[in-house]
Structures are given as structure tokens and as C-alpha cells.
Write a structure and sequence with these properties.
Largest sheet: 5 strands, antiparallel
Strand content: 15-25%
Number of helices: 11
Radius of gyration: 26 Å
Number of strands: 14
Order of helices and strands: HEEEHHEHHEEHHHEEHEEEHEEHE
Structural class: alpha+beta
Distance between the termini: 14 Å
């Protein structure tokens, strides 16, 4: 598990588009009738007649919907098409049905949809315990993060590598939850998130095939090949979290009808299913990925943000904020007395340092082993002033020179 460094500032929180009231439906001239029909069908609306070739009458899913219907034109070939579209969009915006909101999200932001289902008991009147809802959301977020990581590199275990840009790539994803804690939908905008949806789609099928291969033959070899498709420890952990405590779970990816099927995608897309019987294999695969991911030789440039050692002389521990050379925000390393002194002088002078070593998978790629060649890096005055200002601001809350050499 990875944690946000205590000294890292929190990102500003902006209002989520999916949480805004849908009192401003899309303009009729911006809506393709075929896309609206495809989204209504996807979200459970039923077509119940209408003039063939001209319009269809759609009713929402669920009980008590007999009195509600939409007239949706099949094309813009008739003069009243825009009027019918306008009336349908206004009716959707005023509907209390979650499916109506999901349709409007798909129209406003062309998105690939990722659906999760968990087979868990529900409470009175379709409610769910807080923990059940939270488990579903946490597992879904972990799966999206695993997909985002896989778009940046292929690895059996990422740890802290690539995590910051992967987390940032989820900012535009919209979420719609169904009552009961059994279903969740993520709307991944095609403009920014299609690679994530495609990679996650491929990784889920590869994970399913690798689990089937292990259960049939006892061999874990298929998980090695599955890394190229995007399977990782992060994905297996998310699958374990999704299935654990349930009778089974399904995940499906549906492509945005306004854009079509991407290269490498399939249609129709069948849900990928996992059961409690898959949990031992998924756990074993995750442990295998963690154990076998190799260390990475790197040359890192970073600013010294903390120095610690147990006595006035001898080796000490140094923490760097990484500027270049590795896809992690911070690393720790143990330096001998001379290198430790060099790092301390560079810190006092407001200069970054450059160091060679091996980024170890143990601990999430946050530790640099066999560190050597520590040397200050010369920068221009403007950059030096910026670094000094940053270090002084952090110094308000941090003791850089500490005599107690303890773990972060």
C-alpha cells in the first residue's frame, strides 16, 4: 500500500461534473438521435413501439415507469426531429431515474463506460451497509488506477512509480452509483481517457485467462505473459478487493456510441466475471509480481529534504525529492559519511544533487540501494532561488538534520 507523503501538499478539489444538477440538458442540435437511442438501450430503457423509420417510444427501466415515455426520432430527416429531441432531453433532465442521469452524462461528455457489479446481499428497500458501498468504490478506483498505470509502462508491480500522473489522469472520470451498493459505473471521457479504458479492457481479459490457466494446470506462467496486456499486482489487488466478501463480481467496458469501437476493442463486450474461488490465484499472482519485479538502475537528480543519522559522524539516511531520473516523488538512501556531508552541504547551498543507484522494488520503489557518486548539480541563480524558497517553506514544519535515524 502506498501513502501520500506527509509533506506533500493536497491538490485543490474542484466540483465534480457528475455532481452538478442536470437542469441544463444538451442542446438538441448537439445530439445525434442514433447516439441517444444507443444510450437509452444501454441503460435499460425499453423501446415500446413508435412510427417505424421515424421515431421510437422509450420507457425507463424499473417498476412504476408505465406512465413515463420519450419520443426519440431515429434521424433528423423529419421537420419535427429537433422538437422531439428537445422534449426528450428536458424530460430526461427532470427525471429522477439514475438511468436518465447516466444517459445525459453520456450525451454531454462522450465517454467509455466501465461497469462493476458485486453479488452481495442488500438491506431493507434496496439499501446497503456503508462498508459495502465503500468496498465497491475503493475496488473500482484501484482498478482504474491500475489501468492508468498500465498506459504509462508495463510492470508486474509499480509501487510509487508513475503514480502521480496516473492519479491525475483520473480527475476527469465521472462516477454514477446505483442504489444498493451492488453496481457502479465510471464514465471515462474518450478525449482524455480512451487509452485507459482500452488497456483495462485488455488487462481484465488477460487476468481472467491467466486465472483459468492456473486453475486448470497449476502453472503461473500465464501471469508473466499477462503483464504485457496490463496485468499487475495493482490490478490483482483491486480484483481481490472487488470479489472479497461477495458471491462474485463482473466488470464490463462499453464503448462510447458517439465515437465507436477503438482499435483492439471488441463489440459486443461481454462482462468479465470473477468468483471467490479465484481469490487464492489472484493473491498468489500479486505476491509473485511483488517478489519478482526487478530493481531498476537509475541516475537520480533531486533536492535534499531530510537528513538523519544516529551520531555526529558516520553514515546517515537522506531523503530526496526527485526532480528527474525516476517516476517517483521521493526516494530514501543510506550514504557513507563523506557522501552524507556532500548532501548536507548541497542542501545548505540550495543545490540539487545527482546520485547513482538501484531503485528497489521492496518498499514500493522508494529506496535507492548502493547509492554512489553523490555530487551537487549547478543551477542558475533563478532556479537556485526557487529551490531555496521551497526548502525554507518546508523547513517551517520539518527538521532537516535529525539525530534519531528512524524510518519514515
Amino acid at each position: 500500500m502506498t501513502h501520500r507523503p506527509l509533506d506533500e501538499p493536497l491538490r485543490a478539489v474542484r466540483p465534480h461534473p457528475a455532481e452538478q444538477p442536470w437542469n441544463q440538458p444538451p442542446a438538441p442540435d448537439q445530439v445525434d438521435p442514433a447516439v441517444l437511442g444507443a444510450l437509452l438501450h444501454r441503460h435499460g430503457w425499453q423501446r415500446r413501439g413508435g412510427a417505424p423509420g421515424r421515431y421510437g417510444r422509450w420507457t425507463p427501466p424499473g417498476p412504476g415507469s408505465g406512465g413515463t415515455s420519450l419520443l426519440v426520432p431515429e434521424s433528423r430527416a423529419f421537420p419535427d426531429s429537433d422538437d422531439l429531441l428537445g422534449e426528450a432531453l428536458v424530460a430526461l433532465s427532470r427525471s429522477g431515474s439514475p438511468s436518465a442521469r447516466d444517459v445525459l452524462v453520456g450525451l454531454s461528455v462522450p465517454s467509455d463506460e466501465i461497469h462493476w457489479w458485486r453479488d452481495v446481499p442488500t438491506g431493507p428497500v434496496g439499501t446497503a451497509p456503508w462498508a459495502v458501498e465503500d468496498e465497491l468504490r475503493s475496488a473500482a478506483r484501484g482498478m482504474l488506477l491500475a489501468g492508468a498505470l498500465a498506459t504509462r509502462a508495463r510492470a508486474g508491480y509499480y509501487g510509487a512509480r508513475h503514480r502521480r500522473p496516473a492519479v491525475a489522469s483520473l480527475d476527469d472520470v465521472l462516477v454514477g452509483a446505483a442504489p444498493g451498493g451492488r453496481r457502479l459505473t465510471a464514465f471515462v471521457p474518450v478525449a482524455t481517457g480512451r487509452p485507459l479504458a482500452v488497456r483495462l479492457h485488455q488487462a481484465l481479459y488477460a487476468a481472467r485467462e491467466a486465472v483459468d490457466y492456473q486453475r486448470a494446470t497449476g502453472g503461473m506462467d500465464a501471469f508473466d505473459a499477462a503483464v504485457e496486456a496490463g496485468v499487475s499486482r495493482e490490478l490483482t489487488e483491486a480484483l481481490v478487493a472487488l470479489v472479497r466478501g461477495s458471491e462474485g463480481a463482473r466488470i464490463a467496458v462499453e464503448w462510447a456510441p458517439a465515437v465507436g469501437v477503438p482499435e483492439g476493442g471488441a463489440t459486443p463486450v461481454e462482462p468479465v466475471e470473477f468468483s471467490p474461488g479465484d481469490l487464492p490465484v489472484l493473491r498468489e499472482a500479486g505476491a509473485r509480481y511483488l517478489r519478482e519485479e526487478p530493481s531498476v538502475p537509475v541516475r537520480i537528480t533531486g533536492t535534499v529534504v531530510r537528513l538523519r543519522r544516529s551520531a555526529p559522524g558516520g553514515e546517515g539516511t537522506v531523503r530526496l525529492r526527485v526532480i528527474a531520473g525516476a517516476e517517483v516523488p521521493h526516494v530514501r538512501m543510506t550514504l557513507d559519511e563523506e557522501a552524507y556531508r556532500t548532501a548536507g552541504h548541497a542542501h545548505l547551498a540550495g543545490l540539487p544533487v545527482r546520485v547513482h543507484g538501484r531503485l528497489e522494488s521492496r518498499g514500493g520503489f522508494r529506496r535507492l540501494a548502493d547509492a554512489s557518486g553523490v555530487a551537487p548539480v549547478r543551477v542558475d541563480e533563478a532556479e537556485r532561488d526557487r529551490l531555496m524558497k521551497s526548502l525554507q517553506e518546508n523547513a517551517k514544519d520539518t527538521d532537516f538534520f535529525e539525530e534519531a535515524c528512524e524510518e519514515d
